[in-house]
Each structure stands twice: as C-alpha cells, then as structure tokens.
Design a protein that fits this description.
Number of helices: 17
Radius of gyration: 27 Å
Largest sheet: 6 strands, mixed
Shape: elongated
Oligomer: single chain
Structural class: alpha+beta
Distance between the termini: 50 Å
C-alpha cells in the first residue's frame, strides 16, 4: 500500500503516475526472490524523492547523471521519508559541513569531524554510493573529480571549478589534491629527463667531480634523485661537506630556477649528511610557492584516497610544517612527465 500511496500522491510526481505504476507492476511480476523485492522498494523510494533531489540539483546546477546518482543513493537509505527530505532540503540550503574546520591551516580533520553531527548518519548512509559512482567528469567541461563533487554536494558555499582552483569556498580559491594524484610544482610539463648532463657539467666545472665521475653520473642518473635517504649521494661526493652542499645546491637550482639553491642546501646539510626530512620540507615549501605563483589559488586541500581526511594548506610555510603528515615522491631525473613533487596525505595521521 505504501508504494501505491507514493504513486498516487501528486505532490511527489513529475511523470505520469500511470506510467510509473506500470513500470513497478512489470517489476513485481518478475519477482523471484528477496533481492528483487528490495530493488522494487528502492525504485519506489527513488521516485518518492525525485522532486526533492531535482530541487537540490537545480540549486547546485548538477547534470542529470549526477542527479540520478544522488537519487539512487537516497533511495537505498533505511530511514523515514520525512528525515530523508529534511536532509535533502538541508543540503540545498545551509549544507552540513563545518567549513571552518575544513579550512583550518595545518590541521588534519576527518570527514566525521567536519560533518554536522545531526546529519552524519544520513550522510554515511549515502557516502559510499556517491564516492563509488561519481566519476571524474560527469558530463562537465574539464575534469571534476570525486572530491570536488562530494564537497559541493555537502555545502552550498562550496562551488566546484572555482577558477583558478578546483573549488571555491566562500570565494576562497582552492586546489583539491586527492589520493596519490596530487602534484605541486611548475605549471605544465617541465621534464628533467636528459638534464642530468647539465647537472654533471655544473659539478665538473666546480671541480667537485672529475671526468670519470661525470660519466658515472650520466650512466646512473637515478642515484642522484633527491630522497629521504641521501647517503649514496653524499658518498659519491666523498662525504665532503663543501662538495655535498655545492652539488645539492646545483640540483635544487635546476628544480627551482628562481630559488637560491645554495641557501636551501646549506639549511639541510649538517657535516657530511643531508637531512632527508628537512630536504622534503624545503622542497615541499618551494614546490608550493612555484605552483601557487603559476596557478594563482589561495590554498590547497589534501585528502586521503578514500576522501575521509582533510588537510588545508595556504602558505609555503604551512606545507613545510605539514610534511610529517605527507608522503611524497620526489622529482626524478628520468621522470618524463613533470618536475613536480607528488604528494599524498597519509592514511593515518
């Protein structure tokens, strides 16, 4: 009877009730077991919430395929209809996110923390469906990722594709970096492949290596990639502090042409050792600076792969201080993609 009531209540209908009734009767006639019955009930629930989801999608400017994903997700929720409708109305008006926590520099917050407690159970009931089914583009111009869509669904103050940046939160331009795909560095591709010879030429000219050392460098460029463990790099330069600083300064200058490589090198070299974590922080700081200058955004939000944790960064210093929360892949002399730091928010922080 509940299904019939839903179908005959004109307030809920956009299409012809007779057509929807016919569709459901056709499905009912094919019922073989319990899963099919559950499918029927979810179909009816989706139709009941269609007007509410349409209102939300109109406010947000969503394409039909995004609207359908939201509709399918709420159709599966085991909750009173009034509660589901109140949730959809809240999404279309005030939203359910605490934006102040989402934009607290240097602090990692979980999804459970940034969602209003009152609406958290309802959100968690649809979160997995939204995450799994919202793809990268969803019919929009350009690439709009899962993270941008999830945040824009949860708050009317979060607008996807704020330009510059992936989203805008109260007009603050934000780049969103999710999972392991986050990159910081020069705009566009600036490959280092083949430039190991230039690095070696600087070292040769400064007389910190000889011709044999130059040939060894060309033969095995990967050994001279920046990393958390720079022991082999230091050994190649004879564990000589002056030579290590000069070589590291040349390398950093090539990664960041506008920076003072020697100053950066001096700050991370102690004796004959390079502090890998200090180098990581310095390179994150400089990569953020270069990227921000190119893209003109106000800040970056990093999320883990499951989009369950968030870290906001809005200055080079803030990403340097957040280095312990991040795993990175340093630029490589053999990387043909770009001279960028690849960054990822650690799963457990």
């Amino acid at each position: 009877m509940k299904i019939i009531d839903i179908l005959t209540d004109d307030y809920h209908l956009d299409e012809t009730p007779a057509q929807v009734r016919a569709d459901i009767v056709q499905k009912v006639n094919k019922i073989a077991d319990e899963p099919d019955l559950i499918n029927i009930l979810q179909y009816a629930n989706q139709y009941a919430f269609k007007k509410d989801v349409t209102k939300l999608s109109t406010v947000k400017g969503y394409k039909e395929n995004v609207s359908n994903i939201i509709l399918q997700a709420v159709g599966k929720v085991n909750a009173p209809e009034t509660q589901v409708r109140a949730f959809l109305k809240r999404l279309a008006t005030d939203g359910i996110i605490k934006e102040n926590l989402l934009m607290t520099p240097g602090a990692v917050h979980s999804m459970d923390e940034i969602i209003d407690n009152k609406w958290l159970p309802m959100f968690k009931a649809i979160q997995l469906d939204l995450f799994e089914k919202i793809s990268g583009k969803m019919g929009e111009k350009g690439d709009v990722g899962k993270g941008e869509y999830l945040l824009s669904i949860l708050s009317p103050r979060i607008v996807r594709r704020g330009a510059p940046g992936d989203i805008a939160i109260d007009k603050v331009k934000i780049e969103l970096k999710a999972g392991s795909s986050g990159r910081l560095g020069p705009s566009g591709s600036q490959s280092l492949a083949g430039r190991i010879a230039e690095f070696g030429a600087h070292c040769l000219k400064s007389k910190i290596i000889d011709q044999q050392g130059f040939q060894a460098m060309i033969a095995n460029p990967v050994a001279f990639n920046p990393s958390l463990n720079m022991t082999a790099f230091c050994q190649f330069f004879g564990n000589n502090p002056a030579h290590i600083k000069k070589a590291l300064g040349f390398m950093l200058k090539m990664h960041y042409p506008g920076a003072n490589g020697n100053t950066m090198a001096n700050s991370v070299v102690t004796g004959a050792n390079i502090d890998g974590n200090a180098l990581k922080a310095k390179m994150l700081e400089m990569s953020y600076h270069v990227y921000q200058q190119a893209k003109q955004f106000d800040g970056v939000i990093l999320t883990d792969y499951g989009i369950n944790k968030y870290l906001y960064i809005n200055t080079p210093a803030s990403i340097a201080s957040a280095a312990p929360f991040l795993t990175v892949k340093f630029p490589s002399w053999t990387d043909t993609q770009s001279n960028c730091m690849k960054i990822q928010l650690k799963g457990r922080t």
